[in-house]
Amino acid sequence: MKIIFPMHLKNNLSGLLFVLFAMACTDENKRIAFNERRDVEPSTWIESNVIQASLSDSIVVNNGEYNVNNGNWIQGKSSISEGDNIKVRVMSSRLPNDVTMCEMILGSDSVYFQVETKNFTVTAKQGNARNINLGISGPDNTTIGGPSLQWLEYNSDKENMGSAVKEGLIPGIKPLFDAQIRDAVICIGGDGRYYLTGSTGSDIWHFNDGVELWVSENLREWDYMGLVWSFEKDGTWQKPWRFHHKAVRALWAPEIHYVKGNYYITISMPPGDRGLLKSSSGKPEGPYINALTNDGRWGTDIDASLFEDEDGEVYLIYGGGWVARMKENMSGLAEKPVKPILLDPDLNSNHHASTCLSRRNCQDIGREGAFMFKRNGLYYLTAADSYEGRYSSMVAISESIYGPYRWRHEAVPCGGGTSYIKDHDGQWWCTYFGNENQSPFREMPGLIKVDFTADGKVFPSKNQPQLDTHSQQEWEQKWNKVWKNKYVN
């Protein structure tokens, strides 16, 4: 059994609501681990040891069931009394070496029970989001672990996809290559080549293997460089499984950056931890080690990125638009993060995620996936948000990195949490992956060429060089009706 005490109890363990009959050890974060169950049979209910309540309180179990004093196994919320004996149980995975976890909440405090399924041989085809027990998106990915059946299903539904293309909001682009990738980003390396990373594996909501990397000379042909950082081989604080609605051990939205003459990869893990890796060889393929002091991490938010200004200062950009300058040696933050003020915010709730009105009062640029670039002396702070049902790239502009920012606008419909790059010919592009059915495809890497208005706003370019002649003509006709009237005039 795995017990994780909440942060507010770190320095006052006497306030615990229960007594645990197990031996325990404590790590540097005051997390107390109890006997995890390993090598269990697949698809089997596994019970915890008994926990005796020391106070009367409420109980609820997520992703599992519980009983009190050997009564019936139940779900939902109920009350317990001092001295009650409580057990929880969870269904083990049907995949080898996979972890499942349930959360028991006593009052406001959480207890986690974790089991690991034994190793065994499985067939290559499975019926849920993950085909087999790997999380790889590289070449021949059907054989080695993906894509997921869910991904195949929603990308085959062409009739109900691509409404943003039909309306002329985005061009009918094709994926750069065939792989299941979310949050695709591209940077230019020290060798002048283009490097692409993203959330890979066929079920990142539960499990993937780490950070995969692709490289291109020209943004058209891409070569797979493999898994450059993995949980099993390279993980430190990232390695333990954690609870986010269920057991999870996945990297979200990794980004490769070339700053200060070296390659760095930002990583994000559910439910809210971010880290920074650096290449110990100076090469994009690594190996990568933790860049932060004392194997450090940043908590409470997701989606980290880096921005190097013209003066050589590097900034951490994260979440929905937080900004903080890094130390010179990239070992941590040099200042407290700030969230820049947005002038004239867009208060239309249809231009934000459903939670924005209650949590952020529609006062920010976006909810996640923040990124920054600079053009003609102006700073562009970008983030993903839900705009009329599209997971779009939102952009705001400022003369200062700390803001205030203005002119929040939907720059690339369906663009999502993304990156913007200027290629060797001086052309700007927005990376793309497709998150919902308004997109022509979902969870695959793409590029949309972008242009800028006279005052700096971003919009999809009329000329999309990767389109065929017929598609280009259709796009230009729609573009003249939508974007020319919206921005160019």
Overview of the structural elements:
The protein has 489 residues and is mainly β. The chain has two domains: 2-117, Immunoglobulin-like, CATH 2.60.40; 141-244 and 253-488, Tachylectin-2, Chain A, CATH 2.115.10.20. Helix content is 9%, strand content 38%. Strands 2, 6, 7, 9 and 11 form a five-stranded antiparallel beta sheet that branches. The longest helix has 20 residues, at 469-488.
Any chance you could write out the topology, listing elements then pairs?
Blueprint: E1 2-3, E2 18-20, E3 25-26, E4 32-33, E5 37-40, E6 45-47, E7 51-53, E8 57-62, E9 65-68, E10 77-80, E11 85-91, E12 99-106, E13 109-117, H1 141-144, H2 149-155, H3 163-166, E14 181-188, E15 194-200, E16 210-216, E17 222-230, H4 231-234, E18 242-243, E19 247-248, E20 252-259, E21 262-269, E22 273-279, E23 288-290, E24 298-299, E25 304-308, E26 314-318, E27 322-325, H5 356-359, E28 368-375, E29 378-387, E30 390-398, E31 406-412, E32 420-422, E33 428-432, E34 446-452, E35 458-460, H6 469-488
Parallel strand pairs: 5-13
Antiparallel strand pairs: 1-4, 2-7, 3-4, 6-11, 7-11, 8-10, 8-12, 9-11, 12-13, 14-15, 15-16, 16-17, 18-19, 20-21, 21-22, 22-23, 22-24, 25-26, 26-27, 28-29, 29-30, 30-31, 32-33, 33-34, 34-35
CATH class of the largest domain: Mainly Beta
- Topology, number of strands: 35
Radius of gyration: 24 Å
Looking at this structure, what is the CATH superfamily of the largest domain?
Glycosyl hydrolase domain, family 43
How many domains in all?
A: 2
Q: Which of globular, elongated, flat, extended, rod-shaped describes the shape?
A: globular
The residue-averaged pLDDT reads 88
Distance between the termini: 64 Å
- Largest sheet, described in full? 5 strands, antiparallel
Name of the CATH architecture of the largest domain: 5 Propeller
Structural class: mainly beta
**CATH-assigned fold name of the largest domain:** Tachylectin-2, Chain A
> What is the beta-strand fraction?
35-45%
Poorly predicted ranges: 1-33
Helix content: under 10%
